[in-house]
Amino acid sequence: MPNPFAPNGLREAGPANSGLRRPEGLTSVPDVSTMVDPGSGAVDRAIFTDRTVYDTEMRRIFARSWLFLAHRDQFHKPGDFFQTFMGEDPIIVTMDKQKRIRAYLNSCRHRGARVCRADEGQAKAFTCTYHGWSFGLDGSLISVPNSGGYPETFQREDWGLVEVPNVQEYHGLIFGNWDPDAMSLEEDLGDMRWYLDAMLDRDPEGTVVVGGVMKWVLHGNWKLAAEQFATDWYHVNMSHASALQVLSPTGQGPKKEIAERTGRQFHNDHGHAHGFPVHPKNRFDAKTVHQWYDYDALRERLGDSRVEGPLTNGHGTVFPNFSYLPINGSIRVWHPKGPDRMEVWAWTILDRSMPEEVREAQRLYNLRTFGPSGIFEQDDGENWSECQAIAHGFMTNTTPLNYQMGIGSDREEPGYPGTTSELLSDSAGRAFYRRWAELMRTPAWHEQA
């Protein structure tokens, strides 16, 4: 994919000979990285409300990071497609005739309308309903009504769909990156793979999607959700007190040794993080699922540390906006929709070898806990919306936020790859914002001369 910015830093808006250039004022990016201080644990609340910050995130974080697109199980034959977003850019993910997964900007090159309006399905081509321009599974422009009306200089090969240059898969999870020279997905994940594999590699046959994609809208900045899933076990006993009471066998809430359990929190330099309790008898919550698993076989496959830790309970985020919960097979994306709004898309993924009754038990457990109306999900959404609802007040917005828990507790620990801290810590949150600040102050690939 050619660099869409001219050497002088002004964006080329058409073919190389179009003569179009954007004024420098439209492409300049302010340095907002000083709005977080991971060293002291202070965060400027305006990072959740300011439009300039948000626009800079679109340019410097979402245009250069590995972003989750879909699960491999959503594509079985050529023409299968799924519509999603990378930041606020609409994306078509599809399987071409050679059964390769590809991703394109879902925008016609003629007047800019979407060429695919269905959420998912099967197609031989993508045709814009505005003027009828049609594009093949390889992104090429294959049909132009009244093509004789165009000048001889018009070349169809110049006006195909804009393709995401990097699409890679990790254990069934498909990610895309606009940076043509980005490091590989596996390199970017680094030690995070060890923690992800506790969810994705339990079954040698891999994972499958059940129940489709659930979608809902929340009032809140996307970072509130992403950093909570990266770092925040601290909220569980308070925010989810009623849910924990409902789920406990006695109806009185979890036992003291469960409520006050200890664990670990992992993070790496790329902002990825996973937090989890550690206990020799960690287990899956859904009784049917727990009874089906052979924990000795899991220990043989994944090792004691993973079975006693990230295999079951816990939370994780792949920077910037992909999160997951191993206990119920929930994976989700926090799609940004402006500084004050996000759209949550959630899948349930399960081990492929699970029999139907076990799959159904886990699917229902996920719905009851972390579906759109789940007893835990409702608590989280209320918290984020509450934080956002008052964040625009002058005094509120200019009062720094505290991310100091666990400062000085980072360590390298045998049995757990990467940097770890205590379960109750803001360590991974500080790492999340350290990576955020690094990208926000560094020119991206499209800004290079």
From TrEMBL:
It comes from the Bacteria. GO terms for molecular function: 2 iron, 2 sulfur cluster binding; dioxygenase activity; iron ion binding; monooxygenase activity; oxidoreductase activity, acting on paired donors, with incorporation or reduction of molecular oxygen. Residues 66-164 form the Rieske domain. Residues 1-34 are annotated as: Disordered. Transmembrane segments: none annotated. Keywords: 2Fe-2S, Aromatic hydrocarbons catabolism, Dioxygenase, Iron, Iron-sulfur, Metal-binding, NAD, Oxidoreductase. It holds the Pfam family Ring_hydroxyl_A. PANTHER family: 3-PHENYLPROPIONATE_CINNAMIC ACID DIOXYGENASE SUBUNIT ALPHA, CHOLINE MONOOXYGENASE, CHLOROPLASTIC. Belongs to the bacterial ring-hydroxylating dioxygenase alpha subunit family. This is 3-phenylpropionate/trans-cinnamate dioxygenase alpha subunit.
